[in-house]
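#help-structures
NK: newbie question, is this the right format to request a structure? protein is DNA-binding transcriptional regulator, LysR family
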Amino acid sequence: MATPPDLESLRLLVLVGRRGSLGGAAAETGVSQPAASKRMRALERRLGVQLVERSRRGSTLTTAGELVAARAERVLDELRALQDGVELLRLQASAPLVVAASLTVAEHLLPSWIAQLTRSDPGARVGLQVMNSSLVCAAVRDGDASLGFVESPGMLPGLRSRVVGRDRLTLVVDPGHPWSRRRRPVEPAELAGTPLLSREPGSGTRETVERALAAAGHRAVEPLLELGSSTALRSAVRSGAGPALLSEFVVADDRVTGALVEVAVSGLDLHRELRAVWRSAEQPSGTAAALLRHALRGR
């Protein structure tokens, strides 16, 4: 294949699969049905496979079409994430609103919220500080940030909060780890007695694990390795360094591709709430209030 397929053709293919109709897909993309049909045939010629089965009852994807559409959807999702991430970086300098966020929220949710904010208010400017949950709370309490986003399950003295999302920690290993082939779930006692790859003290991820184990009557042994970001932790697990409990946001793609294997855990509640926080004596206003509204709509 000399050149990769264009993005508009990939979007059209994905919509054909969803709609079951080339006409419906064409209408959603704002092109005529003849133009959409021409584009789809050009895509089939470029890839060298038939993607769409056409009949009087509509259009359905062939087996090859379903495979290409599934991969195309991931490409389009990554493109949207890239666009949102670039928008976030563009807004960080000289911003009147300073936001502090934990790593999970900053990497996987906040870029989309800020992109929505700037679409509704092009003049909005947001600066972001990324740190663990305990430091986010300290920054907001000290007035260094007007609004914070944390994944901490604990008390938040001096702060008010609203739930903006929910998350679950998943136990993951690389495909070569013995746990990747086990049939029975990992019990709390075994998990507590296994040195894991872990985030540093003060992170919401680590606090969630420690609280869940404590509720089951256990205390974790010292970590095998402590790392300061979920991305670094994910990379260490993928390299075979050991098991870790990580946000399902962080490992979602790796579970799909098989780069990481989720291991079932029983007897522990590893769900957590993601919260926006601000000082108790204040109420978010202006750009902070607008950003909070976008975060709450995404719940």
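mod (FA): yep, format's fine, and the tokens are attached above. The mean pLDDT is 89.
NK: thank you!
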